[in-house]
Amino acid sequence: MRQRLKAGEAIVELLRQEGVSHIFGIVGSSFLDILDPLYDRDDIRFIGVRHEQGAALMADGYSRISGAPSVCLATNGPGVLNLTYGIASAYVANSPVVVLAPSASRDHQYRGSTQEFDQVSLFRPITKAAFPINKIERLPDALRHAFRVATSGKMGPVLLDIPRDLLPGGEVDLELLPPDAYRTGQTRLRGDRSLIEKASRLLLSAQRPVILAGGGVQWSGASDEVARMAHLLGAAIVTSYGRADAVPSDHPYFLGHLGRLGAPEGIEAIRQADVILAVGTRLGQSTTFYDNRYIPGGAQIVQIEIDPEEIGRQYPVAVGIEGDAGAVMQSLLELVQETEPRPSPKWVEEIGDWSARRKERLEAEGRINTLPLKPQRVYAELRKVMPRDAIVALDAGLAPNFGQDRLNFYHPRSLLTSLELGGLGFSFPASLGAKFAAPDRPVVNFNGDGGFLFNAQEFETAVRYGLKVVTVILNNGCWGSEKAYQRHAFNGRYVGADTSNPRFDKYADLFGGAGFYVERPGDIGNAFLEALAADGPSIIEIPIDPDEL
Fold first, then answer.
1. What is the DSSP string of 217-271?
2. What is the mean pLDDT of the chain?
3. DSSP 284
4. What is the DSSP letter of 301?
5. Strands of 514-517's sheet, edge to edge?
6. How many CB atoms lie within 10 A of CB 178?
7. How far apart are the C-alpha atoms of 35 and 11, rounded to whole Å?
8. What are residue 498's DSSP bridge partners?
9. pTM here?
10. Cα–Cα distance between 130 and 128 in angstroms, integer?
11. What is the pLDDT of residues 392-414, one digit of tens each?
12. pLDDT in tens, 92-133
């Protein structure tokens, strides 16, 4: 059925057809024609934020938790420029975020006009695609193409540049089509059969197999396949950096993550591997450091990756399989099961020993009684009260990074980190996007004092929308990672490493949220449970030892 619609109405209808329920942004004069059709609808909400960076990070968090595309919208020039960090975050995470970016009117372009900027060129390095339209009649095809690119293959953000003079008074003939009429939908590349057979033979011959699970496991929903393969082969499971939720933490063969502040037990296991099944991972720097400190030079690697450019890019592979992690693992499981594999009893026993040592190490941290509190003790107390279905967002600072090895994740899509981007200020807006995506799940955000102030203004957004997100601020009064470098590499000559802060619990109170201040370990659990029960967002400030660097 074809209908004639105003341009703004057509955009809203196209987004509705894509299943979009939230648009993140700040109201701007360049796109009022898009906002007006939202006035009396409840199927799509415009989420007004306090900074465009927050909008992009919320959209990223929404997509990572929901697995679905999200949308952010900003006014041309400075508004769109402010999206860059958040869109780069989505690019690193392979989040399908679609950016609707109004630009200067066509008559004003290339003349240095007000709020004019070459937005398309700016975003090309941090998106899968960035392109403009120059005729309103192209709008439906262009928007469909944006979603097609964002959700295909290895997903990622896309920017659609719309000159602002196209929207007022513009009309289009729109034929509403279901998304599967103009893209492949959930096509899952199953991989080459002969390569899968070769991989199965190699895995069955392994004496010390290790599965390294990455982001592709989450995006393809392959957690169960990884867990089953580990049981069949008697393989240890470690995860790539930022992906500690790729498999349930209580899997008996799970030994933690690699990379910064990684689990010593998982690191030791992979160092001894003779065959590594790398599932949905680029084997990137944050996980491997591009050397052999973790990945042994003699190990044979089976790499499953949906992006063929990443196969063998960092390490030589024995078998490289281009395909969806879940689909390839299903086929691989079928072949391995047929042969009735016989895991090495000695290796399975070693995995059990590492698992027990990891448990003992974490339990011992719960007996650290020094004040100010060590971050390890904070996480030990929070493990006791953290809901099993919680979504956890960890910022890029030093103190939040302790959490990846020290918190438990029992469900896929439960952990948000800034991954290789390593950007401060990521986690709080991302946690708000996660709450919009999963309103029935508890959401807990961890910041250092420095990282929280990057996007602290979004606490007002959380209050306004009644988002029950708990933020734990681990306050060490410094830029922890940098101070550690200055201590160890520059003999303690600190420049710019120390900070001063307000009382963050009072900050929460001022905005209408709930604030808590905790200095002793015995008070952490009760404060956390009170925060979880609050009617809106909350902040728990915990001073921690600035010397724990």
1. HHHHT-HHHHHHHHHHHT-EEEE-TT-TTSS-TT-TTEEEE-STT--HHHHHHHH
2. 95
3. -
4. E
5. 415-416, 391-394, 443-448, 469-475, 538-543, 514-517
6. 9
7. 10
8. 478
9. 0.96
10. 7
11. 999 998 899 999 999 999 999 99
12. 999 999 999 998 767 767 777 666 689 999 999 999 999 999
